[in-house]
Amino acid sequence: MSIKRDSRGYAFSLDLLLALIPITIVLGMVAGDVDNMMYQVQDTVFRGSMDRVAFDTMNTLLETSGTPTNWEETGNPSVAGLAIYDPSDGPLEGTIDTNKLPSLTQGDVQNLIGDDYDFFMKVTYLKDGTLVKSLGTYNSGAEDIVRVERVAIYSNLKIVSQAKDLIRYTGTPRVYSNPPDPFQTSKYYLQTYDYYVLLVNRGYSSVEVNINNERVFDPNDIRGSQDEYATLVKLIDPKALYNETELQNNTVDVRGTSTPGSSLDVYIVQVVKGTPKEDVNLDSVVPQKVKFELYIWPR
């Protein structure tokens, strides 16, 4: 009887030993791979953090106007945002303000990203890849790079007032402004910017443009058929614009004659002082699609 009982105990011990062998092997494999598993977890968390920083930075730049909203004038933003600011509707998401983008510095973007990452930012026209602006230096040797891309709307020069598709307009001059912001100037604006009238003529034989009752385009400025289908540009004399401490509205009167079917576009364009007249053209003032790219990587 004792032998049988011992044999049963022996069999039980052998079964337990056989069961422990695969468990021991599995535990050994897990222990050997735990470092790799921890690395993958840490890498996933770190990559997720970089992704979040990149997306948050892009959203701030393209969906907000920054703090303060006129930081491009003060040159000292607490938060830099590029979206055009509409006093009635707030930031216009997906648009890039003509004056904010040139004012954006590498330090402004670095403040958004933080000290843990380096970055490279590039804005190019979508139609031909022409570079609009870049900040930072791309590091092709970085081990881990996050890239975020968006499409936005940008105009190289700022239209502050416009009247489009004027068709055979005669009689009383048309007074217009670009809602919701009228064409405004002040002492600061006239120290910083020049203003041009840009006409896109499609068949008008004469056009008269007056700013605050001061003539900019004379009917005789259209010289026959050569100017009846052309883009014409003239600098507005600063003396014709309001030059007070506070912003004041400027009126624009347009009068013209044409044959049926003709049309006319009138733009008042704001440019940084010193901008060559030849740079004031239709391609520069009409908003175009741009590709906004942001790359970040760990320092």
Protein model, in words:
With 299 residues, this protein is an alpha+beta fold. The chain has two domains: 1-154 and 286-299, no CATH class; 158-279, Jelly Rolls. Helix content is 29%, strand content 38%. The strands form five sheets. Strands 9, 10, 12, 13, 14 and 16 form a six-stranded antiparallel sheet that branches. It has a five-stranded mixed sheet with strand order 5-8-17-6-7. Strands 1-2 form a two-stranded antiparallel sheet. The radius of gyration is 33 Å and the shape is elongated. The mean pLDDT is 85.
Describe, in short, the structure shown:
With 299 residues, the protein is α+β, with helices and mostly antiparallel strands.
Oligomer: single chain
SSE order in H/E notation? HEHEEEEHHEEEEEEHEEEEEHE
- The whole-number mean of residue pLDDT values reads 85
**Please, how many domains?**
2
Radius of gyration using CA atoms only: 33 Å
Strand content: 35-45%
> Helical residue percent?
25-40%
Query: How many beta-strand elements?
Result: 17
Please render the helix and strand layout as text.
Blueprint: H1 2-63, E1 66-67, H2 71-74, E2 79-80, E3 84-86, E4 90-92, E5 95-96, H3 100-103, H4 106-113, E6 117-125, E7 131-136, E8 146-154, E9 158-167, E10 174-176, E11 184-185, H5 187-192, E12 193-211, E13 214-217, E14 231-235, E15 248-249, E16 252-272, H6 282-285, E17 288-298
Parallel strand pairs: 5-8
Antiparallel strand pairs: 1-2, 3-4, 6-7, 6-17, 8-17, 9-16, 10-16, 11-15, 12-13, 12-14, 12-16
Keywords:
single chain; 299 residues; alpha+beta; Jelly Rolls; 2 domains; six-stranded antiparallel β-sheet; five-stranded mixed β-sheet
